[in-house]
Amino acid sequence: xxxxxxxxxxxxxxxxxxxxxxxxxxxxxxxxxxxxxxxxxxxxxxxxxxxxxxxxxxxxxxxxxxxxxxxxxxxxxxxxxxxxxxxxxxxxxxxxxxxxxxxxxxxxxxxxxxxxx
Length: 117
Fold this sequence. Notes:
Elements: H1 10-21, H2 29-35, H3 40-58, H4 75-86, H5 91-98, H6 102-109
């Protein structure tokens, strides 16, 4: 179900941009959209110019982990997945528990994705 469109105030837009620039670990796109009760694409469109500026200064910019707007996991989930796997849970069970694909579980376990966690 889609959220109703909400008009953000200038102060809210400024706060979203400043929070994102500061790279506050508790506020990724998902958290910012929840905090201001707007959809993720609204927040993504606000930060797109910021990302372009960062790209111009520092080269290629890729979004991974919680910074990606379609992320379903948090770093805590990733740690929990790895711990449960070490404890003997199968990747199939973990995929069902965390509502992600079996291949994504294997990528996490083998550190192909979420390397920094």
